[in-house]
Amino acid sequence: MDTLRYLDNVATLHLDGEACVGCGECTLVCPHGVFEVNEHKAALVDLGGCMECGACANNCPASAITVSPGVGCAVYIIQTWIKGKERATCGGGECC
Ligand code: SF4
Ligand code: SF4
Fold first, then answer.
1. Tens of pLDDT along 40-71?
2. Residues with CB under 6 A from ligand 1
3. What's this model's pTM, rounded to 2 decimal places?
4. Cα–Cα distance for residue pair 28/7, rounded to 1 Å
5. CA dist list (Å): 34 to 13, 15, 41, 67
6. Which of 38, 49, 51, 91 has its CA 20 to 30 A from that of 72?
7. Residues 48, 6: contact at Cβ < 8 Å?
8. All structural domains of the chain with their residue ranges
9. CA distance 96 to 94
10. Residues lining ligand 2, CB < 6 A?
11. Residue 30 CA to ligand 2 centre (angstroms)
12. Which atom of ligand 1 has the smallest separation from the CA of 21?
């Protein structure tokens, strides 16, 4: 998803490729297309799209995914809508 993105390279999402059984559940529940499954293994194809909602980790039957639930810094995301990505700043709260 190109229009709703968090900061690049900060998502806490981790995929254990060895544990993955290739069921594809993560590709079904992720609202942002972060995963793809090829040849029975999941891969992260858009880490920057992860909003740390936790749906993938909660639905992975192999416990192959970990992510620290967050809000995807809603302040930053809303500012990118209003000001554009170049002028958006984080809210500077306790999270950062
Ligand atoms: S839900 Fe878990 S086991 Fe299934 S494809 Fe995704 S990472 Fe692999
Ligand atoms: S935490 Fe949510 S947005 Fe991030 S990869 Fe998992 S389902 Fe997708």
1. 999 999 998 888 888 999 999 999 999 987 65
2. 15, 20-26, 37, 42, 60-62, 64-65
3. 0.74
4. 23
5. 10, 11, 14, 13
6. 38
7. yes
8. 14-71
9. 6
10. 13, 29-30, 32, 34, 50-56, 67
11. 5
12. 3
How many C-beta atoms lie closer than 10 Å to residue 11's C-beta?
21
Cα 18 to middle of ligand 1, angstroms: 10
Handedness of CA 67, 62, 49, 32 (dihedral sign): negative
Overall fold of domain 14-71: Alpha-Beta Plaits (3.30.70)
Of the two residues 96 and 39, the one the predictor is more confident about is 39
Burial class (CB in 10 A: 0-12, 13-18, 19+), 60: buried
**Residue at token pair 């858009």:** 46
